[in-house]
């Protein structure tokens, strides 16, 4: 559900704090709510409006966080050096679950229409606000944290491919289209973590959906 700058809706910039963060065991130091929100803050500050399109800052934040979480180095594929796509391959063997998110956002539009700096994460009435928070930098944060948790305590055999793509907001020539043409999108199931609800509870939704899929994959391979 991507939009262009002209019809950017309010729901595009909001995400609720997820309940799972308050669940028992979810607050290890590396994966605490504060760390997750801090990651989201850095992703929002890493400007990536498209057009014009330049995802290098976001890719750098993802790389830094992946290193902190102990994830392996990603492969980088780019039709243009300013438009990187990052692919992480976690775990071993089939089946492979693909989790995909895009790194670019729509343009901020008229800054006067914002109640706060669009590139500075803020909290209002229990919701997090910033350009691309729901669409879809919260998804990026959730994918990294969920993958790290799964790697430490795998709930299913197989592997996970994280795809962080460029250029989704402007026809994907440098992103998914390029990756598909290169034959890099191969897996047994995929979750595109694009927000689909008016009130996006992306983080919690993604984790729950991923856990269900991983369970199904495990059942199918027994
Ligand atoms: Zn989107």
Main sheet: strand order: 2-3-7-4-8
Number of strands: 8
Overall radius of gyration? 17 Å
Low-confidence runs (pLDDT<50, min 5 residues)? 1-12, 20-26
Proportion in β-strands: 15-25%
Chemical compounds bound to the protein: zinc ion
Description:
With 222 residues, this protein is α/β, with parallel strands linked by helices. The chain has one domain: Aminopeptidase (3-Layer(aba) Sandwich), CATH 3.40.630.10. Helices cover 33% and strands 18% of the residues. It is built from five helices and eight strands; from the N terminus they run βααβββββαβαβα. A hairpin with a 7-residue loop joins strand 2 and strand 3. It is globular. It binds zinc ion (ZN). The site of zinc ion has 6 residues, from helix 3.
Strand-helix topology:
Blueprint: E1 14-16, H1 33-45, H2 56-69, E2 75-77, E3 85-92, E4 96-102, E5 122-124, E6 127-129, H3 133-152, E7 158-165, H4 176-181, E8 189-192, H5 202-221
Parallel strand pairs: 4-7, 4-8
Antiparallel strand pairs: 1-6, 2-3, 3-7, 5-6
Residues 2, 102, 135-136, 168, 194 line the site of zinc ion (ZN).
What's the gist of this structure?
It contains five helices and eight strands, in the order βααβββββαβαβα. With 222 residues, the protein is of the alpha/beta class.
Keywords:
222 residues; alpha/beta; Aminopeptidase; five-stranded mixed sheet; three-stranded antiparallel sheet; 8 strands; 33% helix; globular; disordered N terminus; binds zinc ion
